[in-house]
Amino acid sequence: MGPLPDGVVGRIGSGRINDIALSPDGDRLAFAGHVGIYIFTVEPFLQEDLIITTVPIYQVIWSPDGSTLAAKTKEGIRFIDYQTRAEVQHWSVDSVCDIAWSPEGTRLAILKKGLLEVRDTSTQALVFSHPGANYCLSGIAWSQTDQIAFSNASGQYLIISGQDGSFIHNWMDTSEYPGMSLAWSPDGTMLAAYVDSSEDVVLWDGEADIILPVQELGDFDSSVVTWSWDGDYLALSGQEWHDPHIALIDIRNHSQADRLKTDAYLINDLVWLKNQPGLLSLESRGGQLILWDVQTETALQSLHSTDSPLHLAWFPEGDALAAAYQNSVSIWDAASYEERMTFEVFPDEFRVDGMIYDFALSPGGDRFAIMHGEEFERLISFWDTQTGQQQGNLYRSGYAGLAWSPDGSRIATRLPTYPDRPIAILDSTSREIIQEFDFNSYQFSLSLDWSPNGETIAVSGPNAHIFDLGNNQDQTLSACGQDVQIVAWSPDGSQLASISTNGTIYVCDSSTYQLLYLLRDETVYAEAQSGYAWYATGLVWSPDGQLLAGSIIFSSQPENPPTTENRVLLWDIASQQPIRIISWQWEDWGYYYGTHRNLAFNPDATVLAFGHHDGTIWLVDTDR
Description:
The protein is an all-beta fold and about 625 residues long.
């Protein structure tokens, strides 16, 4: 799946899908992903090929004749010959927001921050340019009649000639925030736009030069507007928190026709299929690709596109790896990298903005527990890894934090009771509370770790804490770091490690709880200090106690979108020096949520697995 950094020996999973494009003949779909471009046949809905790229692809569009794919990357635009799957051109262009082909395919429109450019696809020569919006939220649309629609920095919706950029019409002036999506009807006579400032869907009849009324859609926020092939319908992604759906607008009477109930409050893309009454949606949460029958308003088929792996755990035998994503859990074969089983774990009774906040595999690997739901209302459920079935009833919880006892008989978690927010010990079979500790911490996400002898629980917080289960007492470990996000006992229980928001790892003696040493790469620390937001996402000992791995995220000053960097550091305990540092950057609106377990060593400590932002699991050689 493309080149990997030094020391990374494998990658598991298909990765995140960012964009969808249907071929001009309607027979194939191209999916832009973090590991390349996937090609699927429409009937049947099956993967045909993967065009591997060296960088993530954020947008893909077919040329009008279907011979070439134009792919938007962070560094520019790549052109790929569909028949040979070979890259034929690479344009270095900064800050690309959106791209569109001309009707005959000899020109490409490039919407950048503050500028619209049209270039010749053969020579890359600039045909013309025009001032545009100063951010990447508005789109561009090129009609079959060779007219380009876009919005500028003043909130004006302009139409210009695709030949020379001459002004044709200012069809709407919001004087505020422009819309997020524009789409021409198939015959090029009507233009649809979603206006963010007024939350309106606007239809402009180009022949009559009038704005057509559309039935009020209520509290509706849409990032995608797309036409059916016959031009009779519009599909819009609805981002209502309490009622997420896809709205279908009947153009013939300018009113809402149907609503397709979705399982995610944010839809990244919508594509009408050509030869069937189908609509394909790309959901942001969980990365699901859903094929809809718009006549029956039902989901026909789904394709799982993995989002960022938030929690990882190896099975005791080392032959498989469990990964928890935002809405599902997968078990991957460690030898073949094939998916053995997928658990769709999200409960129907919760709103669709919920997600998995924590995951813990039992010591024997026969069960796992997950915490899932909404931000302030979460459930714990238990699942059998062999049968794929949920075990028993759900247990209501409140904040992230799950840890199995070494013998698998108990599980520790955090309760929602305010203001104490206690740590509770549950019997893993009966799910009954058998012990509680008061712990009033401001942190919503907590790391819990059970000592190897089963007598003590370590908890993250403003400082590291320990709870002695025998005498029901707790102790604050002020010497073991501040703003502690993750805690981890060494395999023999002699040391307790913690990682704080500044990326420093503190290692304390478990008998005195005094600091033994710090692990901090000064170069990484200095770079991270310049970021405006950063936190730890992983801390784990190798099974033999000779290695310690930590993962941190930090971001640059707020941009549109912000640039975020992730670092994984693998430390040798004997020398207290890093033996591997793996880092990468990405542009995104969000970060990892509620995660503190995105690192995991296999049983013989030869491989470190970590969850990558591209939606795959990277496997690192530890040189053992």
